[in-house]
Amino acid sequence: MVTLQTGVPEVTIDALDIVNSLVVIVVAYVVVQMFAFVVSKVAEQTVKHRITVKMVLPLFKAVVYAAVAYYIVGQVLAVTPTQLLAISGLIGAAIGFGIKDLFSSVFGGFILIVEQPYKIGDKVTIDGHYGEVTDIGIRATRLQTPDDTLVVVPNDSVFSGAVANANAGKAEMLVVVEFYVAADADLDRAMCIVEEALVTSRYVFVSEKRPFVVLTEDELYYQTVRGKAYVNDTRNEFVFESDVTRRVRRAFANEGIEKPSPLPGHDASRSES
Fold first, then answer.
1. Rounded CA gap, 42 and 36, in Å?
2. Can you say how many angstroms the Cα of residue 260 is from the centroid of all Cα atoms in its chain?
3. Does domain 173-271 sit in CATH 1.10.3720.10?
4. Domain assignments of the chain as residue spans, ordered by start
5. Considering the entire predicted model, what is its pTM?
6. In this structure, which of 29, 64, 138, 141 has its CB flanked by the most CB atoms within 10 Å?
7. CB 65: neighbour CB atoms within 10 A?
8. Alpha-carbon torsion 31, 37, 41, 47, what sign?
């Protein structure tokens, strides 16, 4: 049996309390993992509602872990309000002396669950990292980058930096494809080619609320043709971009629409598009 003395009524913990607490924590962890597995499997069966279905995961985790904390403190340890106040003081001191970063990340996790600046399945940029949100935990968010790298970002990043969300919980997202043509190229024909490639792609999503557009911009030695359209699934972002780019370049070559020639002092890498 362990007795904690803090200047207020003592908190008594015996070995059975500790074992019960550990059992409750392990069971809760297993339940959360099983629920996450089932929900992920169900969500992957549909594109349209995949992100919506996965939205329940962070909330479910928060509810389960909060229930575990309440059960351990109130039922297993039988801590009174006065004792809880004393323990809270100790926890506050511990936070101040070394684990404030962990506490900040955990608090950030709850902020993410409540405010939802991004959801599981969203394409976001956090702290300079771009990728799909695969998990929102109590301490950190996991991103899967386009090159299949797993990035773990502490949740307190929501307090210290900007978060860019490309699709905001929707299955479709806007993709921009740019092309550079010579200054004397047939711009109208180039725009028509880009438009045709956008709307005929198997990955495009066009509706009244999700229109496509082709824009142009004159530069000093070349012209920019920029196509904007929504992809039907965030995971097809790069496949869509590649599909449109391949067909536009082929059409440009067939119709003699030339790329700009690199000039001294000009960024040649941009002309490669």
1. 10
2. 37
3. no
4. 2-115, 123-165, 173-271
5. 0.65
6. 141
7. 17
8. positive
3-state secondary structure string, the chain? CEEECCCCCCEEECHHHHHHHHHHHHHHHHHHHHHHHHHHHHHCCCCCCHHHHHCHHHHHHHHHHHHHHHHHHHHHCCCCHHHHHHHHHHHHHHHHHHHHHHHHHHHHHHHHHHHCCCCCCCEEEECCEEEEEEEECCCEEEEECCCCCEEEEECCHHHHCCEEECCCCCCCEEEEEEEEEECCCCHHHHHHHHHHHHHCCCCEECCCCCCCEEEEEECCCEEEEEEEEEECCHHHHHHHHHHHHHHHHHHHHHCCCCCCCCCCCCCHHHHCC
Own/partner pairs, 40-47, CB within 8 angstroms, 24+ separation: 43/121, 47/171, 47/232, 47/233
User: How far is 118 from 153, CA to CA, in rounded Å?
Assistant: 13
- Which residues lie below 8 Å from residue 271, measured CB to CB, with a gap of 6+? 180, 222, 259, 260, 261, 262
What would the pLDDT profile of 209-243 be if each residue is shown by its tens digit?
A: 999 999 999 888 889 999 999 999 999 999 999 99
Q: What is the pLDDT of residues 61-79, one digit of tens each?
A: 777 777 777 777 666 556 5
**At residue 130, what are phi and psi to the nearest 5 degrees?**
-110, 135
**Model confidence pLDDT, tens digit, residues 150-163:** 999 887 777 777 88
Instruction: Output Rg (C-alpha) for the chain, integer angstroms.
Output: 27
Question: What is 123-165's CATH topology?
Answer: SH3 type barrels. (2.30.30)
As a whole number of angstroms, the distance between CA 194 and CA 204 comes to 13
Strand-pairing partners, residue 218, are 223
Parallel, antiparallel, or unpaired: how do β-strands 204-205 and 150-154 relate? Answer: unpaired
